[in-house]
Amino acid sequence: MTKEQEWNIGRLLSTSSGYWRSSTVHAAVKLEIFTVLGQKRRTSAEIGEEINASERGLAILLNGLTAMGLLEHDGSCYQNTDFSLSCLVKDRPGYIGYIIIHHFHLVDAWAKLDKAVVRGTPVQKRSHGEEVERESFQMGMFNLAMAIAPSIAATVKLEGKRHLLDLGGGPGTHAIHFCLENPKLRATIYDRKTTEPFARNTAERFGVADRISFVAGDFNTDPIEGKYDVAWLSQILHSNTPEECESLINKTVQALEPGGLILIHDFFLNDTLDGPLFPALFSLNMLLHNHGRSYSEKEVSGMMSKAGVGNILRLEFQGPNDSAILCGTA
Questions:
Q1: pTM of the model
Q2: Is the bond preceding 223 in cis, omega lying within 30 degrees of 0?
Q3: What confidence tens digit (pLDDT) does each residue in 151-181 have?
Q4: Candidates 3.40.50.1820, 2.60.40.1120, 3.40.50.300, 3.40.50.150; correct CATH number of 148-329?
Q5: Does residue 132 have a pLDDT over 70?
Q6: CB 304: neighbour CB atoms within 10 A?
């Protein structure tokens, strides 16, 4: 056991009540507190008037956010910290509020984790509305990908590649940055029909709409048409069973030109599946919502090898929450 894994009563109670902090952040983002403040200094009464909230309740929330270091307070007025201004104000390019709302949408399911463990299957149905949850998920994935896509595109060398398949690409953030980094590359995003508006809007926003196409389909049941010389599978294996992962990797390899490149980006567990912490906890999140889980690098490498992929290696990239990239040649 490392020092970081040592427990005491204080740490246990802090962990048990940790949802107090996350719920405070969720409420502030839902009420757009940080956006309303922007670069201004405002009293709780002024903020309350704009968002139609009671001054009593709002003052308690604002003080909690100040205690957490997300706001500053001079005794009469509140203002954003530099961090809040950059990450939690809607019109800022670094805004990550959508993924925070997505986390809020997961709370009901996490409250039923004990039942999911007993059953071994998801127990929570949608509770916030399909359209609302879809937007927060798709734009939340955009939030997260924007933090790492530019560095990944610069790290992964695609010289000589002409056509990239972004499987389960959602809003297409990675495909866009691969195209920006490689002027001769075009990309096809393959995902469900409901994600197409997000993908097309994002491609238009970054000025690469003429180099990015969209194919609607369910990659677990529908064929992958066409041929590609590079395939990018980012954060999709963990939503599938081991059997589905094997089938998906094999199907992807069949869609690659001889010598084509397959790149798999995901949260990887160690060989004993009991760490690192985030991938281990993320497996619980998958238990609550589908039949997937986090996989180890050894497991995924084995699936790739079984599909005929050679020269498998882990790239020199380490993302947030222990995400990594495995690369191989078809």
A1: 0.90
A2: no
A3: 999 999 999 999 999 999 998 999 999 999 9
A4: 3.40.50.150
A5: yes
A6: 24
Alpha-carbon distance of 153 to 26, in angstroms, equals 31
Q: What is the pLDDT of residue 91?
A: 87
Q: What is the pLDDT of residue 138?
A: 84
Tokens of 25: 């952040």
d(CA 174, CA 57): 41
Query: What are the distances in angstroms from CA 26 to CA 33, 78, 97?
Result: 11, 18, 9
Rounded CA gap, 84 and 76, in Å?
19
AA letter at 19: Y
Question: What pLDDT does residue 126 have?
Answer: 64
Q: Specify the CATH class of 3-94 in words.
A: mainly alpha
236: nearest Cα among 245, 247, 246, 227:
245
**CA 285 – CA 244 distance, rounded (Å):** 18
| pLDDT tens-digit map of 38-79 | 999 999 999 999 999 999 999 999 999 999 999 999 999 999
Each domain of the chain, given as residue ranges in start order, spans 3-94, 148-329
- Write out the DSSP string of 241-271: -HHHHHHHHHHHHHTEEEEEEEEEEEEEE-T
**Distance between alpha carbon 132 and the CA centroid of its chain, in Å?**
17
* Residue 127 φ/ψ, nearest 5 degrees: -130, -5
Cβ neighbours for 215, distance < 8 A, ≥ 6 positions apart: 188, 189, 190, 225
* Nearest CA-CA partner of 187 in 167, 170, 165: 165
Show the tokens assigned to 247: 């089938």
